[in-house]
Design brief:
Strand content: 15-25%
Strand order of the largest sheet: 2-1-5-6-7
Largest sheet: 5 strands, parallel
Order of helices and strands: HEHEEEEHEHEH
Number of strands: 7
Radius of gyration: 13 Å
Structural class: alpha/beta
Number of helices: 5
Helix content: 25-40%
Shape: globular
Distance between the termini: 26 Å
Length: about 140
């Protein structure tokens, strides 16, 4: 994915379902989500083992979220990505973002074939900070 596409994603979409969001502040999923929340994004945790994370209600799956989801950010092992992509497609998400270190080309191809933008193996926090995305008014 090219830089203008990432800039567009981070500028246009502000609702992020975070699959694998941990309540542990030392975990990357918590750090990235906390940063994005402070930057004005709505974070929706997806973690069946928790009731709330970052002050937000947790959901068992992306498809259990009653509200619109624009970006599905994945903090799961690469081999666990395909069912999450299926949920993102079913939910009508616009983007699947596989966090740094997470790659699944087959799932990415399926998401793209369904019309979703795909970011793979990039840290959302780092990209947001690097591109200096302003808060949405």
């Amino acid at each position: 994915m090219q830089e203008p596409d990432i800039r567009k994603i981070l500028t246009d979409y502000r609702t992020i379902a975070v699959v694998g969001l941990s309540p542990d502040p030392s975990r990357p999923s918590f750090e990235v989500s906390h940063y994005m929340q402070k930057a004005g994004y709505r974070i929706i945790p997806v973690n069946p083992a928790c009731d709330t994370v970052l002050g937000e209600r947790c959901y068992r799956s992306v498809t259990d979220i009653p509200d619109e989801v624009e970006v599905v950010q994945i903090f799961r092992r690469s081999e666990s990505v395909p069912p999450v992509v299926d949920e993102a497609i079913a939910k009508g998400a616009k983007v699947v973002w596989m966090q740094l270190g997470i790659k699944n080309p087959e799932a990415a191809a399926k998401a793209e074939a369904a019309g979703l933008a795909v970011v793979m193996d990039l840290c959302m926090l780092r990209e947001h900070a690097r591109l200096r995305i302003p808060p949405k008014e």
